[in-house]
Predict the 3D structure of the following.
Amino acid sequence: MDDALRPAPDASYEAQLARAPMGPDDVALAEQMIHRPLRGESAAAVRCAWGLPAVLRVRPALDDGTPFPTLFWLSCPLAGKHVARIEARGEMAGLNERLAAEPELAAAYAAAHERYLATRDQLGPKVPKDPSAGGMPGRVKCLHSLYAHHLATRDNPIGEWVAEQVEPMPCPAPCVSLEGRAP
């Protein structure tokens, strides 16, 4: 498929707040996709064209109270590889320069950060020190989380830039086995 990953059709903070936690089938798929057990209660924030949970919305704190590092987790292995290539080229340095030189971009990024925090705080216990994801609001640190934020809400200008670099993202087959999955 040439259009395997795009923002959720209902991409918004409101839609993300309404997402129910994933059931056992989706949890098993997500764990296969990220190659380890999920650490926190997660919802499928965005599904790929194959119906897989490509972005997870994770509760802000784990069961033991430990803060989880990001609200939106890019679980699609193909997208992760494409974004890793951008990071490996050192694009974050140029994006940080743009944030410093372009007040409109910096303001949009900071505003997205505030909406991100407000949404995160509605999902669970408030995380101390208001850490955000991906370096928000003042720098670009992790393009994976910024792209996941964009896919889930359409509200991250740096994540939107990442989308312009990696989409369309052809995906010829599901990345995990769908055998035994409930319809």
